[in-house]
Amino acid sequence: MNYSTRYASTITACLSIAGVFLCPAPAAADVTLPKVFGTNMVMQRDIALPVWGWADAGEKVTVRLGACEKTATADKDGNWKVTLAAMKTSAKGAVMTVSGKNKIQFENILIGEVWICSGQSNMQWSLNRSTNGKKAIAEANYPQIRLLGVKRATSAEPLKDITGQWQVCSPETVGGFSGVGYFFGLNLHKELKIPVGLVNSSWGGTRIEPWTPTEGFDAVAALKKIADDTRSSPVR
Asked: In the chain, what are the domain boundaries?
């Protein structure tokens, strides 16, 4: 079975779901990146890898991961983006450096499958509240599974960053993570024998409309009220 996903669309989706964002882009000065990038992350195998962030306008930013290095120049608004070459699956921790006027270094990066675990209460339900959760937590020593929990916040429009931090799966880190997401990732890891990154962006009790891009509602005249309501009240 082909479980290959698209890292670009995965991360774009993560940054496009209303209700999971915290703040607008940071003020320009030092080179910065959104928190979907970080030490212990997994990056999607076998596709071109976008890396982006902010810097001073006109600043040159160089990103290096393994043998791949790309440079971009921040535009007038301070936005920059590079696209790294596709990489094969790797369980060997790699280092990414991002250099401009300052230097950022992310460590212990694996290459494998990246999946978003998103939705309402069934997806939010944590492992420590799940059937046989205590046993699963005790056995959760899987250093090739990485977890990113996105802090919940509301916004009527997509914002540019999240609050969250990649963690190595262990009995100490997995308990509050999505039970469905964890068991899915565990089965994937065991079957494919590759690293798996899981991004938990879920919120129990929310309606389905805020999880649907308003552009979809805008395309159907009969759904205009839903589009307007979603913009005015992103999480209901």
From this structure: 7-205
